[in-house]
Amino acid sequence: MSLSQPFVAFRFEVVLDLDKPTAGLTSPLCEAAFAECDGLELTMQTKTLEVGGVNDRQTHLIGPVTPSQLTLKRGMTNNLQLWQWFTSGTKPGSVLTAHGQITLWGPDGEPGIEFNLTGCLPAKMRAPSFNAKGDGGVAVEELSLVYSKLEVGAPGAGFGIAVGVAASVSLSAGVSLGAGGAASAGISVGAGISASAGFSLGMG
Question: Which fold would CATH assign to domain 12-45+58-202?
């Protein structure tokens, strides 16, 4: 029996699209230039029943699902769309929902796994930390989101896992990652379609 080749962690793409066009904001936001993704996680709070006289086993029941936080990073530039989206949502009566797609690319350059988020709303915006040592570190900003539904599946095969509970997402704006091996300047969106051979760190 042949084993499937595992995915590599640096070949991914994050796209965050607004559900409705909004003045001053493009879709996808920040041209999908996110460099790091961490925290795609769901935890079930199981219920344990204690049965009198039964000492050699436990009975577990399913409970509510608690999502983790998702952190996306992108080096801060003069593109302030994440800040504009956040501040627009603070106005009374405004609801600026978005939907997100995180694609993990396979070794053949084709999309392998997709994580779909719907009902995304900005909840927290965080500016980069600054340091005068001059070590060349990239300034990274963060945006935290909540979302209403998470779906996981293989592209073209339908989605076998769908959890429709409110979830927290934390998006950090930062450097863009593509696919491959060489580092180059500029914006890279995606890992294998429009991007050329390899992994790029972009500032856009």
Answer: Pnp Oxidase; Chain A (2.30.110)
